[in-house]
Amino acid sequence: MHHLTLVLSALAPLTRFVTAAPRLLVCAGLVSASLSAAPVPAGAESPPPLAFTLKDQFDREYTEACCADRTALLLIADRKGSAFVGKWSAAIGSELKTVAHPPVQWVGVATLSGVPSFMRGMVKKMSGSDRAHWTLMDWQGVLAKAYALPAGHTSILVFAPDRRLVLRISGREVDPSVVSSVVAAVVASTGTTTASTQRSSGAAAPRRE
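and the corresponding structure tokens:
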């Protein structure tokens, strides 16, 4: 029961994140400890393009198609990292409101690979009952493994509309300079200077497969 309490309390920040960002698709993400907001290094092994098949707490299945024709902004976090998700999402969302940017699909992913299978039903029930505000449940930690995300952090990944990873950072407490780097990556993600003006709070409803 003690372990269950830890798991459920870890989901609370993720639920608050979704609630605080209405009409945005959120998938909790891990941010690395270094807080170096560098783009994906050239010459390094190319990270895989955005691809996933995950269910939310209501057992609705989503794929990367929910981000079609949009810049994807993923926030991914495990139990410890979830404590920082709300601060990062609020800071990024606030700065995005001040600039013209392409359409953005927020995706919040909870890394739950440490949760025993018999607890999954209880975890889903405690993840919020509002079907408009959902979080993807990554029970196997697929995304954290695919993009080498550090444990205990909030990770922020920005993908261009062509599903190419353009920025991957991880951290705990919010760093304003890193927030600016995330916003800059979003603005530049389409490779054009004609980004449409869009407020994050007015993003279109998430598409579901």
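(Above: one complete record from the training split.) Residues 115 and 193 are 44 Å apart (CA to CA).
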